[in-house]
Amino acid sequence: MDETDWRLRVRAVLSNRGTEVAALLVVLALVGGWVTYTTHVDPGTTTEERAVASWSRTAGFDHGATVRNPNPVFEEGERLSNRTVYFTRVSPVLDGNYTLGYAATDGGPLNATVRLGLVVQGVTGEEGAEPLWRTTRTLGTRSTRDLRPGETLQVPFSLDVREVRNRTDEVTSTLGSVGETEVFVLADVRLEREGEGSVDGRTFQQELSVGPERDTYRVTGGEPSTQRYETTETVRTERGYGPLRTLGGPLVLALALAGLGAIGAGYRRNAFELGDQEREWLAYRADRSEFDEWIHTVTLPSEAHDLPRARADSLAALVDFAIDIRSPFKD
Fold first, then answer.
1. Terminus-to-terminus CA distance in the chain, angstroms?
2. Relative to the CA of 226, which of 7, 14, 80, 167 has its CA 20 to 30 Å away?
3. CA 118, CA 123: separation in Å to the nearest integer?
4. CA-closest candidate to residue 39, choices 216, 321, 231, 249
């Protein structure tokens, strides 16, 4: 399609459907105006959680037992530390510390409370089932309201494993040997850290399992672990948009307004009305495109120019005539 055809087709569309085109441009102008306004004039705000500080706690048990009774292997007074198995006859008392460490990026203090308790309970072994029975005894409690980064809070504990086993035997002999018996030191920890207008509170628990057997007791779990936290604040920021919306909205608005202005000016000058020759040319080009496969270029002999002639009203009529008589030029 050459430039002349293109211009004629645009004028024809605007002449026949100018109202619809103008309505479409009005809609595009409204959309472009709304996008432009909400992007550049009143983009609105959004809320987000922003980290203002980070802090962490490291907590865990260390334990040991002092050799108190004569034996051929260990010296009396020797300290056995962080073993999995201890011998009840030579080291009947398990003691140690629960240590809480603190670190923070902003240097703020930490309020901490640690409660240690000895828990003895009977369980069925089914996951999630309630204990059949349970006894607790406090081993120690410590609190601080000014724990600084790099400092630690320690809570000592001590328990006589023979006494624990005797107490357990007393309970099972009374209730009966149902299920299994668990013995552990439970650390119940509460942390509070004051931020900007708010308090970040955390609670957690850790267990140090103590399993009394006939001549030994096994100690497992309670290894030091670190947990990191973030102190956040809610901030309101102006909503941001990408380049497609930032540039696209004004561009659509400008093009739509320019198109409306051009249509209005064209109608005032009657610039879109087509003449008879222009309409015939467009009809011819439309027929030429539609029936292209039926149209062939031939050279007539000079004698044909002296023969009678017939006139077709349009190229489409001529093609219809050729189809009807089964033109030999048909592919």
1. 25
2. 80
3. 16
4. 249
- At 181, give phi and psi (nearest 5°): -105, 130
Give Cβ neighbours of residue 295 (< 8 Å, ≥ 6 apart): 288, 315, 319
What the block records as the tokens of 108 is 């703020």
Of 94, 184, 186, nearest to 140 by C-alpha is: 186
Nearest alpha carbon to residue 55 among 224, 191, 204: 191
Q: How many CB atoms lie within 10 A of CB 214?
A: 7
Q: Report DSSP state, residue 329.
A: T
**d(C-alpha 228, C-alpha 57), whole Å:** 7
The answer to whether 283 touches 275, Cβ cutoff 8 Å, is no
Q: How far apart are CA 85 and CA 209, in angstroms?
A: 12
- With b meaning 16 or more CB within 10 Å and e meaning fewer, what string describes 100-117? bbbbbeeebbbbbbbbbb
Place of tokens 């069925």: 124
Q: Using CA atoms, how far apart are residues 15 and 17, in angstroms rounded to an integer?
A: 6
What pLDDT shows up at residue 83?
94
Question: 292 Cβ partners below 8 Å, 6+ apart?
Answer: none
Q: How far apart are CA 52 and CA 71, in angstroms?
A: 58
Q: Whole-model pTM above 0.85? A: no
| Predicted local distance difference test score (pLDDT) of residue 249 | 75
> So what's the pLDDT on residue 286?
61
pLDDT in tens, 229-265: 887 667 777 777 778 877 877 888 788 788 777 777 6
List pLDDT tens digits, range 293-305: 666 676 777 776 6
Res 304: pLDDT: 65
From its phi and psi, is residue 128 left (phi > 0), alpha (psi between -120 and 50) or beta?
A: left
Quote the CA–CA distance of 110 and 132 in Å, as a whole number: 38
